Amino acid sequence: MSQVVIENPIINSPYEEPKRYFRFTDEGITNEVIESRRISSYFIPIAKPKKKSNQRELSFDTEWTQDRIKENKFINQIRDRLALWRTGGYGGLTRTTARLLEYWKQPDRARLFFCQVEALETIIYITEVAKRGDAWIENVLREANEETNPSLFRIACKMATGSGKTVVMAMLITWQVLNKLANPKDIRFSDTFLIVTPGITIRDRLRVLLPNDPQNYYRTWDIIPPEWVNELGKTKILITNFHAFSLREKNNAGKLTKNILTNGKESPFTETPDQMVRRVCRELGNKKNIVVINDEAHHCYRHRVTDEDVTLKGDERKEAEKREEAARVWISGLEAVNAKLGIKAVYDLSATPFFLRGSGYPEGTLFPWVVSDFSLIDAIECGIVKVPRVPVADNSMTGDQPTFRDLWLRIREHLPRKGRKTAAVSGEPKLPAELQAALHSLYGNYEKYYRLWEQNPEASAKGITPPVFIMVCNNTNSPNSFLTILPAGKKTCRMDQPLLFPAGSLSSVTKKTEDGLLARIQFS
To answer: Are 371 and 157 in contact (CB under 8 A)?
Structure first.
């Protein structure tokens, strides 16, 4: 297949339902535009053959092909019902909800993205409208949750990273709170929220969801109609990271002492789930039947034990075990909160709400409680997120394949397997030649487009964002596989921060990781 270069992939407005999309074929994306909205679908990874084939051992196995794509029928059916309801004038709503939707869609205000409004519309429709005529939606959700999340009612919205999930959280809180205040006896709504995140950094970033925060999103994004501006102060919102759900040690004691006193029974030295909930949710007071919002909720699920569990080895197994433990702590914590305080509903927001390899579910399977989908390719075509670019020129060949194709398969055997976290690191890492060439190629392509931006006299005046160069690595275990490029003059940075720099500032830099490893890279 000849390579397709789409110079401008933005073909839709971010404020309206997508009406066009680029067609995909068995061989990948084309520049053919289809006049309709792309249906929701997802990849199904094809299992690797158990025996290696001598032929095409390095074949490219991540192409977009039709036999790997499965339609999200549940999501598409909800989307169809939502479209009819929307065009029919939003019938069946409370006065409060009707006023909010009217306010959010006013053209003379700070406009919200279509995907943000659609996520709330979907949740609202299921909560307030679907029971009259579309009860099958809730039935499907309850059945899915009974199998995977017993005792919890979870609803997930899939939104591409960068499409504004935090704004959606602010909209969701506003909708719930104002309806509860308008009718305190309406059991569909709550004025108490527990927001759970996968890390401290995200937790701090979500402070904008607290009404008393100076930069709160309710004011910044004009989420609340003027007549209700002061009402949000009556709600209780707690933001925590899932690590807080871990049962802590209450008393210091030696391991031998603990073993003798517990004798295989429940440890008196460790918190009970009830005690953990009292500690974590102390700020919520005596509130019951709370609403939980999970940020990046693909970290929260319970492992399913089956006869077909995938056997993982080495680093892959260790990473899977780490993920499983985190997921167990998160879901167990929510179950404990539900048992102690009661959870009305759990709303998951994630760009990737699917089961990972080693979870006990088929890899790549979408969470069955996902009800709306706005994918990365949709966000790109609507101009909501940055447009990723890759070099298309690769004249070098290795065998019958371009050198930079299947790059990982070509270099992985040349990276160290042992002593990654303990071996002393000195000097520059020895990079495989193919990797070094690929890095130079990527940087050269980026610098070309940066220079074009730099030479555009209107770029800075109009606030046109310059292109950036981002390097993403799968782990930090190996100093030879972990390469980080920092802005000029910056010597260290947090591991969870994006690393960006303008062209021309790249020099030989050293990065010290949390594991004490150093990585150095230099472009001449």
So the answer is: yes
pTM listed for this prediction: 0.76
Pair 256, 223: CB distance under 8 Å: no
CB distance 350 to 297 below 8 Å: yes
Paired strand residues for 239: 195
DSSP state of 31: E
C-alpha radius of gyration, the chain, whole number: 25
Residue with tokens 């969870």: 496
148 contacts 302 by C-beta, under 8 angstroms: yes
Cβ contacts of residue 216 below 8 Å, gap of 6+? 170, 208, 209, 210
Q: Looking at 228-369, list the stretches that DSSP marks H as alpha helix, in order from N- to C-terminal side.
A: 255-262, 273-280, 314-340
Q: Where are the alpha helices (DSSP H) in 58-113?
A: 73-87, 95-104
Dihedrals φ, ψ of 159, to 5°?
-135, 130
Q: Could you give the 3-state DSSP secondary structure of residue 30?
A: strand
Distance CA 343, CA 18 (A): 35
To the nearest 5 percent, what fractions of the chain are helix, strand and coil?
35, 15, 50
pLDDT in tens, the chain (524 residues): 456 778 788 999 999 999 999 998 777 788 899 999 999 987 766 555 444 444 333 333 444 444 567 889 999 999 999 999 999 999 999 999 999 999 999 988 878 999 999 999 999 999 999 999 999 999 999 999 998 898 999 999 999 988 999 999 999 999 999 999 999 999 999 999 999 998 877 778 899 999 999 999 999 999 999 999 889 888 999 999 999 999 988 766 555 555 655 565 566 668 899 999 999 999 998 899 999 999 987 788 888 776 555 677 777 778 778 888 888 999 999 999 999 999 999 999 999 898 877 778 877 788 999 999 999 999 999 999 877 655 555 555 555 555 566 677 777 777 655 544 555 555 555 677 777 777 777 777 778 878 888 888 887 777 777 777 766 555 544 443 334 443 333 333 333 333 333 443 333 333 333 333 333 333 32
